[in-house]
Amino acid sequence: MSGHDGPASGPKPRPSEGPHDGAASDPEPAPPFRLARAASGLRHLRWAREVLGTLGAHYEHDGALDEAARSFVLEESIELRGAIEKLSARVKPYRDFLERKRTPMRGMLRVGHYVARAARTAEERSDAAAVVEGFEEAFANFDERERRPLKEALAKAIDAVRTHLAAMDARVEARLDHRRGRRRRRRGRLSGALVQRRDQPTSRPIVER
What we know:
This protein has helices at about 40-60, 65-120, 120-175, 185, 190-195. With about 210 residues, the protein is an all-alpha fold. It has one domain. α1 (about 40-60) runs antiparallel to α2.
């Protein structure tokens, strides 16, 4: 269920298969993650919440699940919700920092570079260079002091939710997919539906700068 928002499309068939050849064997599995690790914390949060919604829909509407399987899906939903809450607790302070504290500092840098471009005389250029150097040093110190701890905490939370989803997918596959027999050839693997989106990924992930 990872990936980037875009026009939905089904997985492409292997070259040896046509789209409707009715092959008995399962299609080649997709890579375990389509959402780039460099994608933003907010994108990972949205992705994990979509997985949670998928679990909920299976629990409510998937007639192929018996009571034991539904209980299993419910347990996985509860655990995933906890992982999502931990990621959310790291995403919000980092985004607030970017939008409320870091943007004024970036504006300061823009002014410094504007002054440097507008300088005409040697004295003006020298003064502007000193201003830019001071602004860049202040910005670097600011990032090291305030941004780095928030970004490191967010990175750990992103890794944790990716690990959780990969492990969850493996549990779902082991517990449920083998029960579905030939049904999964028509409907696709339940586990694959949980952690992989069918969207085509974009070439450039969204990254929080």
